[in-house]
Specification:
By secondary structure, the protein is α/β, with parallel strands linked by helices. It contains 9 helices and 10 strands.
Length: 245
């Protein structure tokens, strides 16, 4: 049974409709990637899921329980179960790496500092930054800062991890280290919903790929189905263009 159900979800910014009725399901342990042209609603979908934007209509259901995005308690309960990493790292510049990873579990979730910091050090070692725990963000490369952001999200012990174009702001030579971290999470069975323009990586890591355009889900399938045998003309057009470059 799917863990995260999205049914006819719609959302808008002001008068601009961005999601027009998105329906999909994310299963436990699955890596699902969202692809499509800019403005298709991929990042907006992630923002709605974590409660940063209230949907206009539709439902999000987690383990059979609908999320009420108009209710703070319902959104808070959802955020106990998910975490998101954005394209921009959004690290606290006045805190070192260890403090950045530990701050939310300690201050918001009121967990013991010593316990959290031990977990944070283990997470930083996991993302290849065990030697940087006392460094500050401005002393790190973009790729290193993004790996800190991933560790910070993992410190929340999420059941669902949402990744929004996390390599888009990085120089090409810094991308591979970040993608290696995501590969490791996938191998460990982390349930992930990924927005990415790294098509080779999407093909490699995804259990399913969702192609979106104009705020709608156009086609869903395995990486082989979407990239090699797309059924919808809009998907074929998009895939054909990206594979030529």
């Amino acid at each position: 049974m799917p863990t995260l159900d999205i049914d006819n979800l719609g959302a808008s910014y002001g008068g601009n409709t961005v999601l027009r009725g998105v329906t999909m399901a994310l299963r436990t342990g699955e890596v699902m990637s969202l692809i499509g042209p800019s403005g298709s609603g991929k990042s907006t979908l992630l923002r709605v899921l974590v409660g940063l934007l209230v949907p206009d209509h539709g439902r999000v259901v987690v383990d059979g329980a609908p999320v009420n995005y108009a209710n703070k308690q319902s959104v808070r309960a959802l955020r106990e179960r998910c975490a998101i990493v954005f394209q921009q790292y959004n690290l606290f510049q006045n805190m070192n790496v260890l403090e950045n990873v530990a701050v939310t579990p300690v201050r918001i979730r009121k967990r013991p500092r010593r316990e959290v910091e031990a977990e944070a050090m283990a997470l930083l070692a996991r993302v290849g930054l065990g030697d940087k725990i006392r460094s500050y963000p401005d002393e790190l490369s973009g790729g290193q800062q993004q790996r800190v952001a991933i560790a910070r999200a993992l410190a929340l012990k999420p059941e669902f991890l949402f990744l929004d174009e996390i390599t888009a702001a990085l120089d090409p030579e810094l991308v591979s280290d970040v993608l290696d971290v995501i590969r490791g999470l996938a191998n460990d069975g982390m349930t992930m919903l990924i927005v990415s323009h790294e098509m080779a990586f999407v093909r490699e890591i995804s259990d399913r790929v969702v192609f979106m355009a104009d705020g709608l889900v156009v086609e869903t399938g395995t990486p082989t189905e979407i990239f090699d045998h797309p059924q919808m003309p809009r998907t074929r057009d998009f895939v054909g263009k990206i594979l030529r470059h």
